[in-house]
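Lay summary. Proteins are chains of building blocks that fold into shapes, and those shapes determine what they do. In this project we predict the shape from the chain. Here is one chain we studied, written as its sequence of building blocks.
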Amino acid sequence: MSGGNGQVGMRVQPRVPGTEARDGKFPGPSLMPALTALQREHGWLPREELEALSRETHRPLYEIEGLISFYPHFRTEPPAKVDLHVCHDLSCWLHGSDERIAEIKARYGDDVEIEIQEVSCLGRCDIAPAVAVDERPAPLADTDRLVAAARNGSHDVGEAERGAEEPRPNDPYAPGEERYRVLRRVLSGELDSEEIISALKDSGLRGMGGAGFPTGNKWELVSNQEAEPKYAICNADESEPGSFKDRQVLAEQPHLVLEGLLLGMVVTGAEQGWVFIRHEYGPEEEVLREELTSLREAGLLGEDVLGSGKRLEVDVFTSPGGYILGEESALIECMEGHRGEPRNKPPFPGVYGLWGKPTLMNSVETFADVPVIVERGADWWQDQGIGEATGLKFFAVSGHVERPGVYCLPMGTTLGELLEAAGGVQGGAELLAIQPGGASSNFLGPERLDVPLDFDPMVEAGSMLGAGAVVVVAEGTDLLASATNVLRFFRNESCGKCVPCRVGSHKALLLLNEVLSRGEGPEAIESELEQLEETTRMTSICGLGQVALGPVMSVLRMRTEGQEGEQAGEVGPTRTHDA
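And here is the predicted shape, written in a compact code that computers can read:
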């Protein structure tokens, strides 16, 4: 298969109870790599090319149409000479993206050579408001320069931001030191799989992509499965507004991400692995491919790695777009060549994953933490945390903050300490609220700045740690409008598979937009919103629908608490204001 996504294999008919709904899916190799290659070659998917693909692969054209209509990156019409994407999600919205979009449309809207699209999060929240010109990401201030360059035929993807020269605290390798030391020790027999699993379990490392599942337990589960072959996937599809720390880890620490993935493959018995990366991360994908080339040259990938008798192959699978693909089973559906709709669980991927085989899947940050834990031991990792917390955590900080960026700090650092490390609220303004765990997390008021950034304390505070995407909102912002912006994202990104998510998020957004357009408070629709939130939370198939209305409801609770405080003679610190 072409397209640089590697051979994904043949589909295996389901044999596990609970997978009956998989019957009827199109069999055969995944068409996704071929479609991605065609899109890269032509800039779109010409009809004659799709018909040729249908003939060559003996697959019905309606199957292909069903795929390309689902994924937003695929185009069925030729692009304009300049493709200009402008983000309108929360971090960019807080920096006036609505006004900037209006200005861009006024400046370029009549230009037939330029196609302007409002898009969901580009993963560049640290340079908000962000744009992408022919998929090259940049701050909005660079728009005119990049548009002019694109008119003249320059379409480079740009370079990844490598960050500081000094290693982050999770990197066991000093500058200039030979890397992949831990992997070499495992391949030489100095370390065995049981020791690695024990180190991960004793360390308390949990999934850093948001779910927080114990990493050692997941690796042990996949390792204990008898079915073969096994697969391993690094989920680099972070697409939630406010999330960009995995992008920075990929740029700075590709060696740690790939070493962690390769260690997972050795431990679980997988021979084939992939990094599934969102297509908006073109610069970071180039960094990964360069690192993979270096690995092959060093003999750490191939049929007989360092004479160990083990076959290890890793490839990059470029996502065709869609936030839903961050959900592990939807990601697997995409790789298999289907529409990226979440599966019902159980079974879980560790038992029945890619092509029905045991599949290890972790996030970028999780894999990047494995080498230092194995190298320095579980006790060292536990000692990095503060209080009851263990380990280190990457946080992406954006919004109304002086120094947006990625910070690696001890788990258990408080919200206030993280905000201070990022320079405080922009312009010295007062803090209105913080969303501590990405778009899916509930807003917290300034009275919660003493809450430790850790899994359980965040839940007790009424929110969640999530993937560590922290969005800061300053006083003077309409917080209900902010939450409505988040809800719009979830409505737009719903895969549509289940009715509660598809219909509930749309209905809630209509109600909120009506209230905001009239300049009214949400009291008139609060009862309806509560019913919609409960329904979507209790009956949606995956996490998208389950959390879609959570941020809105958290704002309503903060509003109520603020009003009660004012009635009691106190100043409500979490009140909302019109912008």
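What the prediction tells us: Residues 10-14, 571-579 have pLDDT under 50 and may be disordered.
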